[in-house]
Amino acid sequence: MRAVLLGPPGAGKGTQAARLADRLSIPAISTGDIFRANVKGKTELGRKAQEYMSAGALVPDEVTNAMVRDRLAQDDVHAGFLLDGYPRNPDQAVELDTMLSDLEVKLDAAIEITADFDEVTKRLIKRAEIDGRDDDTEPVIRKRLEVYSTSTAPLTAYYEGHGLLVQVDGMGDVDDVTSRLVAAVDGK
Ligand code: B4P
Question: Is 46 strand, coil or helix?
Fold first, then answer.
């Protein structure tokens, strides 16, 4: 299976991508995780990404697209992949279509995990207490939700138009969300 996972910050993309990828024996590729690893490792990519991430903004497309193109060229994605957090705007979605067409493969699904903004804000504030991520403060969360509404939410219509959209309710218990997700992608 080749799929992208959409949804607002805190909807459970990272949480569910790991579970679903494990079940399907394919890699979960999180652009956020790759950026955070680069920030931690103090690489050039990390240096470029950090200021945008800590402000709750998207990292510029040319940086993100090149990183995803490199990742999708690796051997472990032949059997499939779950992209978590990419694409995040329509230009990235078009760029992903080009990458996949160059690789002569197609997406099977765009899975959107839905959750209301009050709930995701609570989850991210709780995560801040545990992980101390500097983009999980209330003002930055507000900014990330704004960026989601203006830049990422239009992807719902984009993938619906391509006949690929699968929507899954992300409210409630983590295990219940996983069950809904597994049922929704079954047969895709
Ligand atoms: P991400 O790492 O993608 O961060 P996120 O949107 O907050 O989602 P995440 O996957 O971490 O959280 P989840 O919902 O699983 O992006 C971070 C930043 O990287 C972006 O702001 C941007 O700057 C940059 N970036 C990433 N991709 C980019 C791109 N394509 N283009 C440009 N920039 C990009 O979980 C959140 C919390 O909720 C967790 O603590 C989890 O335990 C909890 N949770 C999950 N499900 C739950 C449930 N059902 N009930 C209760 N809690 C739950």
Answer: helix
